[in-house]
Amino acid sequence: MSREIDRRAARTRKALHQALLTLMLRKGYEALSVQDIIDEADVGRSTFYAHYTGKEDLLRSGFQMLREELKEAQSTARAGAKASHDDPLGFSTAMFEHAARYADHYRTMIGGRGGAVTENEIRLILSEMVRQDLSSSLHDDTIPRDFVVQFIVSAFLTALNWWFERKPKLSPSQVDAMFRSLVLDGLSPLMGDESRSSAD
Amino acid sequence: MSREIDRRAARTRKALHQALLTLMLRKGYEALSVQDIIDEADVGRSTFYAHYTGKEDLLRSGFQMLREELKEAQSTARAGAKASHDDPLGFSTAMFEHAARYADHYRTMIGGRGGAVTENEIRLILSEMVRQDLSSSLHDDTIPRDFVVQFIVSAFLTALNWWFERKPKLSPSQVDAMFRSLVLDGLSPLMGDESRSSAD
DNA sequence: TATGATAATGGACACCCTGTCCGGGATTTT
DNA sequence: AAAATCCCGGACAGGGTGTCCATTATCATA
User: Fold this and answer.
1) Which nucleotide is closest to the Cα of A44 by its C1'?
2) Number of domains making up chain B
3) Which of A5, A30, A65, B164 has a CA 20 to 30 Å removed from the CA of B185?
4) Parent domain of B34
């Protein structure tokens, strides 16, 4: 019995995913046509449609893998961390490190290159993580919880994007520190401590 | 003298902008074709291309108007505000009010409906505002300035989006308060105040 | 109001992309 | 080796894109 997928099929799928990745990095998702993809992957047109219903389907299928990949990265990281129960940003450290390891992949996803679908998928995945971290550490609902979640997710994506685009040499922990500082304590710590200038 | 633009041209342009707005709200920018636009605007195909090079051109031209619109809204607001020089988020109050007044316009721009172009344009406009506010109130560069700017812009867009999508009944000042709280002081104020458990 | 200037129209055009359908050829599995 | 499965290449209609042009409608002005 062939429970495993046919080698050829697996090969084709891999080629398509790889092509998508390459092309997204080069031109961005929206500007991509199925034609481009099968061209890059060197795969027949009908073959493509035998596997996926379109480029969005191909893209989405990639996120299934990412989801599991991340779920594991999170739990392995959580094993080594101690203060995870009081940390409303418990996900961040592992995520920044994961992003550093798979920089190319992340580069294709953030900064608009991934299009709306990618943006949504990522936000969903991250929202789930953040929601969990928050549930055990946030005890004040002055500000609605889903708003806080979105706030954190956006801040994280911003950090990621800024990191890759402007200071790719920084280490994950450095970016993580900035991210945590801003999200946990906001701008106040950065404002003039020497505010004794007794404004006019 | 014909310094003014021909009535017909103005009429056409207005119709196209209106059509774009309507359709973006209905289907989103990316899913839109030039065909749809000229169809909705009841304008000939060649006429469209006589004015714009494509749908992106049309979209961008709309932001020129928005830019000036906002520049004015800001300065009028700044006239009535007193503590603008110490406020790193001086732009926000006026912006939330402006957004409330032109809810339909904003709805087409945020939440992905506007596509990548819109996202970028908005971020550019907001970044400029934030940068100005920040220049006179931020005196600590522990965290790079452009990172802080992006952080604020993202937080603002998140607030805007959450507002429209989840709690449209809230007043601008209520959302503004939440936004400021999160950005200025971060999550700490929301965490267990009963944290006097003298963490071992 | 007459007239030259300018804009809008509708149709035609070649081009590209999309999905879908085959039959022949290649690879894998048994 | 045989049977099953997959891939290929070509063809297809349908739709969108930009561009052209000749014709018609509208405007600005003398």
Assistant:
1) D8
2) 2
3) B164
4) 7-51
* Same domain (yes/no): A113, A160: yes
Are B171 and B109 members of one domain?
yes
10-residue mean pLDDT profile of chain A (200 residues): values are 70 96 94 96 96 96 90 83 77 95 92 92 95 90 96 98 96 98 96 49
Strand D contact with A42 (CB < 7 A): yes
**Residue A200: inside a domain:** no
pLDDT reading at B6 higher than 80: yes
Same domain, B22 and B107: no
* Among the partner residues B30, B85, B183, nearest to A116 by beta-carbon distance: B30
Same domain, B147 and B92: yes
Segment B106-146, tens digit of pLDDT: 999 998 899 999 999 999 999 999 999 999 888 899 999 99
Does residue A3 lie within 7 Å of nucleic acid chain C, judged by its CB? no
Name the residue facing A184 among B112, B150, B186 (closest C-beta): B186
Same domain for A119 and A40, yes or no, is no
Count contacts between A and B (CB, < 8 Å).
140
Q: What is the pLDDT of residues A188-200, one digit of tens each?
A: 999 875 443 333 3
pLDDT at B198: 38
Name which of A137, A159, A192 is nearest B139 (Cβ-Cβ). Answer: A192
Which one, of B198, B163, B161, B193, lies nearest residue B177 by Cα? B163
| B137 and B42, same domain (yes or no) | no
Distance from CA of A101 to the nearest CA of B (A): 22
Task: Find the Å distance, CA of residue A50 to C1' of nucleotide D7.
Answer: 10
